[in-house]
C-alpha cells in the first residue's frame, strides 16, 4: 500500500492543556494535518479493510528548498548533497503519520515492527508513505 500526501510536511504538535481541569487536547494544526493524511490514505486504499499482523512502514518527508538559497545551494539540496537538518523532527512526523493511519490502513500503530524514515529536499513538499505486511 503506497500513497502520497501533497503539501507542507508537518510534525505532531505537543498536546496542549486546559488550565481548568487539566484536560489535554491536540493542537488544531496537528488535527487538520492528521485528517489530511487520513483522507489521502482512505482515497488510496479505496475501501479495503485495515491490514492485520506485523507491518513495515516507510515514510519519506520531502521538504521544500528555502527560497532564499542560491541556485548553487538549491541544486545541491535537490541532488541530495545537502539534507534537511530542520524542523519538523523525524519523530514528530512519524508520530503524526502513525496516529493518522490507525483504523484506516491498519488497526493500531502497535502493529508497526519495522520503520524507515527519509527526510530530503524536493521541488514540491509532500509525504510518501508505503506500508507492507511482514511475512512470518
Brief digest:
This protein has helices at residues 28-45, 71-79, 90-101; strands spanning 2-6, 16-17, 24-25, 55-64, 112-122, 126-133. The protein is of the alpha+beta class.
Describe the secondary structure blueprint for this structure:
Elements: E1 2-6, E2 16-17, E3 24-25, H1 28-45, E4 55-64, H2 71-79, H3 90-101, E5 112-122, E6 126-133
Parallel strand pairs: 4-5
Antiparallel strand pairs: 1-6, 2-3, 4-6
Helix pairs in contact: 1-3
Roughly how many Å apart are the termini?
Answer: 19 Å
How many DSSP-defined strands? 6
CATH fold-level topology: 60s Ribosomal Protein L30, Chain: A
Residues in helices, as a percent range: 25-40%
- Supply the helix-strand structural class: alpha+beta
How many H/I helices? 3
N-to-C order of helices and strands? EEEHEHHEE
CATH-scheme architecture: 2-Layer Sandwich
Overall geometry: globular
Description:
- This protein has 136 residues and is of the alpha+beta class.
- The protein has one domain (2-133): 60s Ribosomal Protein L30, Chain: A.
- Helix content is 29%, strand content 28%.
- The chain is built from three helices and six strands; from the N terminus they run βββαβααββ.
- It has helices at 28-45, 71-79, 90-101, and strands spanning 2-6, 16-17, 24-25, 55-64, 112-122, 126-133.
- It has a four-stranded mixed β-sheet. A two-stranded antiparallel sheet has the order 2-3.
- The model has no long low-confidence stretch (mean pLDDT 93).
Amino acid at each position: 500500500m503506497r500513497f502520497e500526501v501533497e503539501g507542507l510536511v508537518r510534525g505532531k504538535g505537543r498536546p496542549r492543556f486546559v488550565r481548568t481541569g487539566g484536560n489535554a487536547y491536540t493542537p488544531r494544526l496537528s488535527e487538520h494535518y492528521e485528517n489530511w493524511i487520513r483522507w489521502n490514505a482512505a482515497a488510496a486504499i479505496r475501501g479495503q479493510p485495515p491490514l492485520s499482523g506485523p507491518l513495515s512502514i516507510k515514510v519519506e518527508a520531502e521538504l521544500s528548498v528555502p527560497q532564499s538559497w542560491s541556485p548553487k545551494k538549491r541544486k545541491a539540496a535537490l541532488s541530495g548533497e545537502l539534507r534537511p537538518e530542520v524542523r519538523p523532527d523525524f519523530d514528530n512526523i512519524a508520530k503524526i503519520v502513525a496516529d493518522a493511519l490507525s483504523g484506516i490502513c491498519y488497526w493500531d500503530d502497535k502493529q508497526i515492527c519495522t520503520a524507515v524514515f527519509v527526510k530530503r529536499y524536493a521541488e514540491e513538499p509532500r509525504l510518501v508513505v508505503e506500508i507492507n505486511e511482514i511475512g512470518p
